[in-house]
Amino acid sequence: MIVEIGHYALVLALMLAIIQTVVPFVGVKSGDARQIAMAPNLAFAVFAGIALSFAVLTWGYVTSDFSILNVWENSNSQQPLLFKFTGVWGNHEGSMLLWVLILALFGALVGLFGSNLPPTLRAMAISVQGLIAVAFLGFILFTSNPFERLSPAPLEGQDLNPILQDIGLAIHPPLLYLGYVGFSICFSFAIAALIEGRIDAAWARWVRPWTLTAWGFLTAGIAMGSYWAYYELGWGGWWFWDPVENASFMPWLAGTALLHSALVMEKREALKVWTILLAILTFSLSLLGTFLVRSGVLTSVHAFATDPTRGVVILGILVFFIGGALFLFALRSSSLSNGGMFHPISREGGLVLNNLVLTTATATVFVGTLYPLLIEALTGEKISVGAPYFDATFVPLMVPLLLAVPFGPLLAWKRGDLYGAAQRLYVFAGVALLIGLLTLVFIEGMHVLAVIGIAIGVWLLLGAFAEIIQKSGWPKAGASVAAARLRGLPRSVWGTALAHAGLGVCVLGIVSVSSFQQEEVLRMKPGAITELAGYTITMKGFEERQGPNFVEDVASFEVHRDSDYVATIMPSKRIYTARRMPTTESGIFTTGFSQLYLALGDPVEGTDEIVVRLWWKPQVTLIWLGPVLMVIGGLFSLSDRRLRVGAPKPSAKRRQTLAAAE
Questions:
Q1: Closest CA to 113 of 613, 645, 501
Q2: Can you give 130-182 as a three-state secondary structure string?
Q3: What is the pLDDT, as a whole number, of residue 285?
Q4: Which of 82, 339, 468, 613 is least surrounded, with the fewest CB atoms within 10 Å of its CB?
Q5: Which H or E element spans position 421?
């Protein structure tokens, strides 16, 4: 009976989502204040229905109710409790339910925190959000029902995919969905603004916190996914330009452009048309990612579904929303003005450069991701576009942007002084150049491109704080005066600095591990010794262990440096008993920001040897610490009293003045 409650709650949520779409829209068009006022409550009701459905499915997993087809296919009574919880979204049906739950959550949050929004704009945005929910709730109920029953119920389940039985599944998908599904709110606000014809600086002020929230979650989700693949797959890599990786990276690039474009619109009422278009394109890329993952057109460790029927339905949803939004944009764009003018050398000009580079970079990733699919669809020929293409197109585009980032915050609005900004940055440029040259002199075999990369990373890291140093007045102002000024700085200034510094930290990690990584592949047996990056690594032996739902062979390696014991690293090979599927569990020793990484290969037939892959990865953790800094910077900006969700209410005196004017 509980299972049926979950199913009925999903059906009820669909009915309520239809009402959420229709009633506020009709209310706005007819000027009916009562219908407009219903929008937040309808958003709450839809969220409550989906949340109840999600809770019921979770209960089915936790109690191992194998009468539910979805639970039987993706769970097992021997699974640890954590993986019973995470198994809820470790499959197509459950992950789509999580997707639409987060969609409804953002709609409810607009209803909760949107009291400062114009009632008609809030109602229209909630209506658009309801329309998206209708499409995906219908998709779930008619093609991907997570509550489909089995009769008779099996005694045991088939187990969750062993690769997904990791703490990463508890963190990565929710963060990722909060990111690219979160951009649906920006999309809804854009469509609402186009329908109402109201696009101004206040609109950008309302949209920017939602954009920043979604961007922060997506940044964290991509970083977590990268680290999860790095340690779980035993491949030693942190990014593969996999099409499904690109599916989340493209909305991130477009969302970053939207974040900066909305800032220009808020401060100068410029780039109005462009900002609206970016809001549409960012969520459109999120929908494209949903299609790629769930249509069966890709074969990837990340892909959930292989059913082409589902893919056709999602493609129809994608065409409806993207095509409809772009058609509405085309109808309205001629009546929209771009707003204020500005000099090319200004903060606005710098942010326009940011947008141009990011959107071009998004286009290169888009082409590299979809071109093989297009060729296969037209000719039947399978081709692959890998790292060489992206290295040759994406990286050169990003270099000038990275060089320009520290200048942006130092330029004034409307008309800036490029020479003055350069004067405030020359010390940082000198330090970055010096560090690059020192690496060239003291590190043997250093490639000139690596030197440039390290210099750019240091430039970004130091230059990120140039605005803060300028505003503090140091060193001309005394230490006490500078400290007082620093305490009084808006949190958004600190947030910008931390986000840009995080980008520099990430670049340093990428360049370091790409340039200085050492790798060795060899056959080892107990007692065998090898050396790597100054470490002596001795294989001590094997041990068989029994896990809750797997058996594993664990190899033990002792690590010494200059005869001193450093650590014991224990990689393993697992066999999950239900699926009889092997996995590789890497062994990692972290020292500072660097890691010694070991992964076991296949046993050598007829011997007691096994293939072992060893990597020394200098400063590799900076790749993920950088995004952590970016997210912290986003949180600082969101906590700024000037950047609340919505716009501030006018004072009582101001309201009286406005009323008298009317």
A1: 645
A2: HHHHHHHHHHHHHHCCCCCECCCCCCCCCCCCHHHCCCHHHHHHHHHHHHHCC
A3: 96
A4: 82
A5: helix 418-442
Q: Against a cut of 0.90, is the pTM above it?
A: yes
Q: Give Cα separations from 277 to 106, 201, 262, 367 (angstroms).
A: 21, 16, 11, 19
Q: How far apart are CA 319 and CA 540, in angstroms?
A: 58
8 Å CB contact between 156 and 577: no
Question: CA-CA distance, 193 to 500, in Å (whole number)?
Answer: 31
653, with CB counted inside 10 A (0-12, 13-18, 19+), is: exposed
- Among 119-123, 194-198, 424-428, 575-579, the minimum mean pLDDT is found in 194-198
- Is the pLDDT at 656 greater than 80, yes or no? no
Question: Residue 158 CB: number of other CB atoms within 10 A?
Answer: 15
User: Per residue in 563-588, pLDDT tens?
Assistant: 899 999 999 999 998 988 999 999 99
Cα–Cα dist 502/495, whole Å: 10
Sheet holding 594-603, edge to edge: 518-524, 610-617, 594-603, 587-591
φ, ψ at 566 (rounded to 5°): -115, -50
Residues in the chain: 662
Burial class (CB in 10 A: 0-12, 13-18, 19+), 267: middle
Which letter does DSSP use for residue 351 in this model? Answer: H
Give one word for 445, left, alpha or beta, with left for phi > 0 and alpha for psi -120 to 50: left
Q: How far apart are the first and last CA of the chain?
A: 58
Beta-bridge mates of residue 596: 589, 616
Would you say 519 and 642 are in contact if contact means Cβ atoms under 8 Å apart? no
Q: Under 8 Å CB-to-CB from 435, ≥6 apart: which residues?
A: 454, 455, 458
Provide the token pair at 146.
């997570």
CA 398 remoteness from chain centre:
19
User: Which alpha helices (DSSP H) does 567-651 contain, by range?
Assistant: 622-639
Tens-place pLDDT, residues 525-552: 999 999 999 999 999 999 999 999 999 9
Single out the residue of 162, 177, 38, 207 nearest to residue 97, CA to CA: 177
**Cα(38)–Cα(49) distance, rounded to whole angstroms?**
17
Radius of gyration of the chain from Cα atoms?
A: 27
> Could you give the CA distance from residue 399 to residue 404 in angstroms, rounded to a whole number?
9
Q: 300, 314, 403, 394: which is closest to 350 by C-alpha? A: 403
Half-sphere exposure for 29 (CA within 13 Å, toward CB)? 8
- 3-state secondary structure (DSSP) of residue 334: coil
Which residues lie closer than 8 Å to 361 by C-beta, 6 or more apart?
253, 394, 397, 398
- Give the pLDDT confidence of 385-432 residue by residue, as tens digits: 888 999 999 999 999 999 999 999 999 988 888 999 999 999 999 999
Three-state SS string over 182-222 comes to: CHHHHHHHHHHHHHHCCCCHHHHHHHHHHHHHHHHHHHHHH
Phi first, then psi, for residue 484 (nearest 5°) are -65, -40
3-class state of residue 556 by DSSP: strand
Q: Which residues contact 111 (CB under 8 A, 6 or more apart)?
A: 39, 40, 41, 43, 44, 122, 126
